[in-house]
Amino acid sequence: MNERETWATRAGFILAAVGSAVGLGNIWQFPFKTAQFGGASFLIVYVIAALGIGLPAILAEFVIGRRSNLNTISAFEKLGHKNWRFVGALGLFTGFWILSYYSVVGGWVLRYIGGSLTGAYFGAPAKYFGQISAGMDALALHAVFMALVVVIVAAGIEDGIEKATKLMVPSIIVILGALAIFAFTLPGASEGYAYFLSPDFDALFANLGDIVPFAVGQAFFSLSLGMGAMITYASYIDGDQSLFGDGITIVFLNSFVGILAGLVVLPLLFAQGIDPNTSGAGAVFISVAGAFANIPGGQAIGLIFFLVVLIAALSSAISLLEVVVSWAIDNYDVTRPQMAILLGGVIFLLGVPSALDTAWLGWFDTLAYKFFLPVGVLGILIFVAWVYGAPALDEVMKGSGLGEGVGLTWLWLARTLVIVAVVATLVLGFQTLFLGESPAIIPPI
Ligand code: PFF
């Protein structure tokens, strides 16, 4: 069996976890949905969801990971609840699932880095996106992105993930900050700020039924919850640092980067008179890309923008692969590089349909968002708060320096309100999965 690695420093763990959290979700979903759902008023809902639901859930994952020092499946066994291994197994499966299409999108980003250099997407961004997003090119770049992920994960926790994310996360913040300052100088930028941040309580209350589950779902996806990434990362912690402190830092930095991304993309779009009323792939790869065509220095700005998107996507993708690699090397007598290559290969294959047809990609994403992740979060919460209980409280308090009341509040929040919120999110998500006009549950053929 392999000797288990640990993070070299506490900051290393925090940055790796922030790297996992900060990803495509922050850049192509968060700013646009915030603007659409009522700007500053949506931010309030999101912050409540992230702190009131995301934070208790991330702490639950930390507890399992640090207490067991094992991967997301074996952890349940070590904590004395072998029957709950299925929750870890679901997480592992979700890791495969999400990375398979996340990597295809990573491939698009690579393509746009090249496209910025040559100006390839400047003329007709929608047409360009249509050409490159599916087919043999997309497949090849999906392979390249997966290879980058494999290289970092193969290098190990301290030498691979920790070193990489120590460089990547500060770079994301600095570069996005610089781009936000640049966007500020563009004429028309102020309309972008108004659209992004002015509170619209009417829009908020009129769509509350859509907004609340979206805010909760976004908090899960964005904080990488429900599939064992945070369990796995916390399993490499060596020491009694405050999990509360780490969790709050991660939630704060993750939201901060989402807001920063909004301060880049929305002024950019408004400066060009482009309608931002979209989110997802179209928003970033068509609207934002289109804006670069007309701004001074657009090629360079486009290059820097897509570079930062690439770094964010990579630092998230490595946490997805680490979930499965960690399980394999904890349980079998195989080396980390061997497993990284093998499992990376399997994930590449699973991503082939998404690389060949964006309808598959959308279907994979919808199922992950609305089904696998909330079910995973629910399983983890029920386990930690109700089944494991007292030792979980003990673990969360360790090194926190806080009064017992704080831990008890966490435990009872997790036992009640948070579980209710997750169930509600699941039910609402189910309605659109199975009962909508074109239910997403039917895979494309
Ligand atoms: N948090 C990532 C994002 O916002 O793009 C996505 C993600 C990464 C989800 C890792 C889940 C995960 F385990």
TrEMBL record:
It is found in: Membrane. It is a multi-pass membrane protein. Keywords: Membrane, Transmembrane, Transmembrane helix, Transport. The chain crosses the membrane at residues 12-31, 43-65, 86-108, 128-155, 167-189, 211-236, 248-271, 277-295, 302-329, 341-364, 371-390, 410-435. Pfam families: SNF. SUPFAM superfamilies: SNF-like. Its main location: membrane. GO terms for cellular component: membrane. This is Neurotransmitter:Na+ symporter, NSS family. It comes from Haloferax larsenii. The lineage of its organism: Archaea, Methanobacteriati, Methanobacteriota, Stenosarchaea group, Halobacteria.
